[in-house]
Write a structure and sequence with these properties.
Blueprint (H helix, E strand, L loop, with lengths): L39 E6 L4 E9 L14 E10 L1 H20 L7 E2 L2 E2 L1
Antiparallel strand pairs: 1-2, 2-3, 4-5
Length: 117
Amino acid sequence: MCDDEQGKVSSEGRPPNVDARAIPIRLLPHADMELRLVNDVTVNFTGDEFLVTFSQALPPVFRGLDEFPDEVMGKVLFRAAFTPRKWAEAVDSIADQVERLRRAGILPERMRDGKEQ
């Protein structure tokens, strides 16, 4: 966020007094896009935007049940920055999908850290 008159930007990333219009985005075909498993998501709020890091934990090969590592290495697949409005839209969409899965009996009513409550 800039505070000087020339660089002043609103919390939604546009100069003040600019008419915001919703322009639909038509996505290109993504059949050849690589699909990655994400098993760790970290969300940080900077005060102006949400920074979301999508990672993949890389578990080691276990040779027996008595060999558990103290830590597991992970790889950041990508990071994304969201305006507060876009993050709220994404969270609402995810919450709607989770509620549908709960109503269908696919997910339990409550989960914390991947475990049913």
